[in-house]
């Protein structure tokens, strides 16, 4: 493949049809050809499903968007010492200012990648770091927001977060190849992902570190990511009022509530997109505001070093993500006749 990518899979769905393709190989070891229906870690696309699970709590009147979570989420107050009340909306919109649970020096560390991190431990890991009042209200993405939301969901539903997502989203939509569980590496229909450390290639496909994570634990196919977005924006997962709040967001930032606002396109409501890049595959997905036009793509880049070893690797991945969004957005607009 051009640029040295290991594999890429893409699926586009519109009212009159569907198109999918796969390029490259599933594994650099087996060299088996990638297939359009292969599964891959979709990273922070997971946050959009988590946002739906949270908004369903709102629909069920278990909590309000502007209610504080300080005394609801176990350990939130005691571990994090927030500067004031923190609302559900602020966590969903990444405007809470919550400190990160991942030290900057750990990014891309193979040893860190190989360690499981329970939600409760992640919250503790964020404790002890400053949470200034000045950071509240300003958009700053950090996955700890969604770690806290995962704990909120399992506290109010009284069952593990992954079980809630399975019962409320994955199973009802028939997403048979979507899961928050650990990847079974014996299965063949998996796109393997890689990084390098000190010049040595490392297979990072095993998601032991992120399985079950409300921020980046999801494994799926591009067809099922598209199916989920179509259901979400088609009004089949949350109430119209919650969907409107999700699209509105927490402020002027392009990030709304678990989804990013895209450019005006197929519909008067514009478009929305979600992305996933946690150092494995790079995933981008775009939907029209009515869910009738969707496009999703995952790309496994050539093995790149982790951030501590080469900060330029992050810039390379960000550039790839922007190019993917541009391509998918143009594709959707061409299908619906937008200029």
Count every beta strand, where a strand is a DSSP E run of 2 or more residues. Answer: 11
CATH C-level class is: Alpha Beta
Q: In the CATH classification, which architecture applies? A: 3-Layer(aba) Sandwich
Largest sheet composition = 6 strands, antiparallel
What is the spatial order of strands in the main beta sheet?
2-1-10-9-8-7
Report helical residue fraction. 25-40%
Note the beta-strand portion. 15-25%
- End-to-end separation in angstroms reads 31 Å
User: Low-confidence runs (pLDDT<50, min 5 residues)?
Assistant: none
Mind telling me the C-alpha Rg? Answer: 19 Å
Number of H/I helices: 10
Describe the global form. globular
Query: What number of structural domains do the residues give?
Result: 1
Mean pLDDT: 89
Q: Structural class of the secondary elements?
A: alpha+beta
Structure notes:
The protein has one domain: Beta-lactamase (3-Layer(aba) Sandwich). The protein is α+β, with helices and mostly antiparallel strands. The chain has a 6-stranded antiparallel beta sheet with strand order 2-1-10-9-8-7, sandwiched between helices. Strands 5-4-11 form a 3-stranded mixed beta sheet, with no helix packed on it. A two-stranded antiparallel sheet has the order 3-6. The longest helix has 25 residues, at 312-336. The model has no long low-confidence stretch (mean pLDDT 89). It has helices spanning 46-59, 76-80, 88-92, 110-113, 119-126, 144-157, 161-170, 222-233, 240-248, 312-336; strands at residues 7-14, 17-24, 40-41, 194-197, 200-203, 219-220, 260-261, 271-277, 282-288, 294-300, 304-305.
């Amino acid at each position: 493949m051009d640029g040295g990518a290991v594999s890429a899979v893409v699926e586009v769905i519109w009212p009159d049809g569907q198109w999918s393709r796969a390029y490259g190989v599933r594994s650099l070891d087996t060299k088996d050809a990638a297939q359009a229906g292969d599964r891959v870690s979709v990273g922070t696309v997971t946050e959009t499903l988590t946002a739906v699970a949270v908004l369903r709590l709102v629909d069920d009147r278990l909590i309000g968007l502007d209610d504080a979570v300080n005394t609801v989420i176990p350990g939130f107050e005691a571990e994090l010492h927030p500067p004031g009340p923190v609302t559900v909306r602020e966590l969903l919109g990444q405007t809470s200012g919550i400190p990160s649970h991942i030290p900057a020096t750990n990014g891309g560390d193979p040893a860190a990648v190989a360690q499981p991190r329970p939600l409760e431990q992640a919250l503790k890991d964020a404790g002890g770091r400053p949470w200034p009042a000045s950071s509240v209200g300003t958009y700053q993405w950090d996955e700890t927001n969604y770690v806290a939301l995962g704990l909120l969901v399992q506290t109010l539903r009284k069952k593990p977060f992954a079980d809630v997502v399975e019962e409320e989203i994955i199973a009802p939509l028939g997403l048979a190849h979507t899961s928050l569980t650990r990847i079974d590496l014996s299965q063949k229909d998996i796109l393997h992902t890689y990084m390098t450390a000190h010049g040595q290639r490392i297979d990072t496909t095993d998601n032991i570190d992120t399985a079950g994570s409300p921020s980046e634990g999801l494994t799926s196919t591009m067809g099922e990511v598209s199916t989920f977005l179509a259901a979400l924006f088609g009004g089949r997962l949350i109430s119209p009022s919650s969907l409107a709040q999700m699209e509105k967001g927490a402020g002027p930032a392009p990030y709304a509530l678990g989804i990013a606002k895209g450019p005006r396109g197929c519909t008067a409501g514009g478009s929305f997109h979600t992305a996933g890049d946690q150092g494995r595959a790079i995933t981008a997905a775009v939907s029209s505001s009515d869910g009738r036009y969707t496009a999703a793509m995952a790309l496994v880049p050539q093995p790149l070093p982790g951030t501590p070893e080469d900060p330029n690797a992050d810039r390379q991945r960000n550039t790839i993500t922007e190019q993917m969004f541009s391509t998918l957005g143009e594709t959707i607009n061409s299908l619906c006749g937008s200029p």
